[in-house]
Amino acid sequence: MEASSALGKTDEEFCNFMHRVTEVESIIKKLASSDRELQNIGNEEAKKYLAEQPILENIDEEKVALKITTNRTIVNQKALQSDGKSPNEMSQEAFMEEVSQDADKRYKDRLVRQEKMETFKKQAALSFRRGDYERALVLYNKAIEQVKDSVLLYNNRALTKIKLGLFEQAKSDLKNWALRLNEDCLKSWLLLAKTNFLSGNSGEYEECISQAKKRNPGDIQFIKGAILDYARKMED
């Protein structure tokens, strides 16, 4: 199931990428055309393309929705003036440079966010091991601010919240985030089962165990071990 989902996502991303490539190629051909009218059309399409590339602004953790904002950055006027063109015209070289710079910037921004996330994650894990769960929670929050699509981060934050007795918040991390990112994740299902067990929701606990077994048939023994662990804690 996970592999199929990942493959579908990859196919969709590839199709979107190829669509953008085709769009860029079309604009470049118009900019390079000897037909003045086509050049003007290409110029307008180029400015529109560069001005309307969507960027992720924020993820609403309550509504689980991506808010898309439009990048209104004004096209570099110096680039527009290359080859003696007026500020309202764009050469194909200038257009390609803008596209390349935009992609490079987004890639570098992602690397910076990833690096910050790793730093916060390591600090959070260290605080968790020391039993400082409140600090661990603060640090996991900061890590998630940098990278919002990590199942591992939501699982770890949920476990931290369980330690703090914040069961409903832990459930939200698992149901609304971790399991939406990966509906088959065994750790997420077992953490959700544990949360329901500790909060006395036996029906939901049983459902989580059932889902864990159904989605991870190769890990039945491991799941049984987790169930025995819960049973021992109940006896204690």
TrEMBL record:
This is Uncharacterized protein. Keywords: TPR repeat. SMART domains: TPR (SM00028). The keyword Metal-binding does not apply. InterPro entries: TPR-like_helical_dom_sf, TPR_rpt, TTC12. GO terms for cellular component: centrosome; cytoplasm. GO terms for biological process: axonemal dynein complex assembly; sperm axoneme assembly. It comes from the Eukaryota. TPR repeats lie at residues 117-150.
